[in-house]
From TrEMBL:
The organism of origin for this protein: Meloidogyne enterolobii
One example GO MF annotation: disulfide oxidoreductase activity
UniProt-listed SUPFAM superfamilies: Thioredoxin-like
Annotated coiled-coil segments of the chain: none
Name of the protein: Thioredoxin-related transmembrane protein 1
Listed transmembrane segments: 175-204
Quaternary structure and interacting proteins, as annotated: Interacts with ATP2A2.
Major localisation: endoplasmic reticulum
Signal peptide boundaries: 1-21
């Protein structure tokens, strides 16, 4: 027997992905590790989000509506998925989601304010971003130090993925995985510590090695003094000889 209500329910569920995909603005840009430097020129509004974040899902409607007006506002509206771009979450020091940045010709400002389409539009039209101080230069995403932070974020994500693979796919107990990573971390720490100590000891020597260097420097100075005295004596002798010849 044909059940119309059940058929309608199945039909609605089947079309839900299409409906939600249609709500995404065609003007909304997706940034990644490969193209994020595009934001260093022009004016941008960027949202950091994650698929599992409820607050991010609540913001999507307003953010897509805002992106629809990006052409009229002469601005680029973009989003970054931190789950697929962990390095960028490190570069921008994203500690909460969703996080929104305003970027104008390479100057970064953290957006703090109401999160509605009209509020975003007013923020751009009235240039309210001028009321906010840019982030400190040492936190700029394109700086070398933030590049190092990005590497550590990528490394931490790789370690997490490896842990999940070992536990879920290979059946390794969680305690064994944690023990393995703890041992590797400890070993790497010891190796790096040893290298740093060697470098410091070479640049700023101490102990017996420093004493030898001081003694060698002292001998070199003594030899230089003797050589100078010898040259002076020879010069005096030569001068006296010339004087006698003249007489």
């Amino acid at each position: 027997m044909f059940n119309k209500p059940l058929f309608h329910l199945v039909l609605i569920i089947s079309f839900l992905p299409i409906i939600f995909c249609a709500t995404r603005s065609k003007n909304l840009l997706a940034l990644s590790e490969e193209n994020w430097r595009d934001i260093l020129t022009g004016e941008w509004m960027i949202e950091f989000h994650a698929p599992w974040c409820p607050a991010c899902k609540d913001l999507q409607k307003a953010w897509n509506s805002f992106a629809d007006w990006s052409t009229d506002l002469n601005i680029n509206v973009a989003e970054i998925d931190v789950t697929t771009n962990p390095g960028l979450s490190g570069r921008f020091l994203v500690t909460a989601l969703p996080t929104i940045y305003h970027v104008k010709d390479g100057v970064f400002r953290l957006y703090v304010g109401p999160r509605d389409k009209n509020d975003f539009s007013t923020f751009i039209e009235e240039k309210q971003w001028t009321n906010f101080d840019p982030i400190p230069s040492y936190k700029y995403p394109d700086s070398p130090q933030m590049g190092i932070v990005a590497i550590f974020f990528k490394l931490s994500m790789a370690v997490r993925d490896l842990h999940n693979h070992m536990v879920e796919k290979l059946g390794v107990p969680s305690w064994a995985s944690y023990t393995l990573f703890a041992g590797v971390t400890l070993a790497l720490g010891c190796v790096l510590g040893f290298i740093i100590v060697c470098i410091i000891d070479y640049v700023f020597p101490t102990g017996a090695y420093a004493k030898k260097l001081k003694e060698a420097e002292k001998k070199r100075q003594q030899q230089h003094t003797k050589s100078s005295q010898k040259d002076t004596c020879e010069a005096d002798s030569s001068s006296k000889a010339d004087t006698k010849k003249t007489k």
